[in-house]
Amino acid sequence: MATLGGFGSVQHKKNAADGDNDVSEFVCPVCLEIYASPVTTQCGHTFCQSCLLECLRPQKPVCAVCRAALGHWTKNMALEALIQSSAAACKGCGVQVGLSLMRLHTAACPKYQEYIEEGVRTSAQTQPAIISPVPNRYTFTCPYCNYQNLDQDGLVEHCTTQHARDSRQVVCPICASMPWGDPNYQSADFFQHLKIRHTFSYDTFVDYSTDEHTMMQEALQRSLLDN
Question: In b/e form, how buried is each residue of 179-208, taking b as 16+ CB within 10 angstroms?
Answer without folding.
Answer: eebeeeeebeebeeebeeebeeeeeeeeee
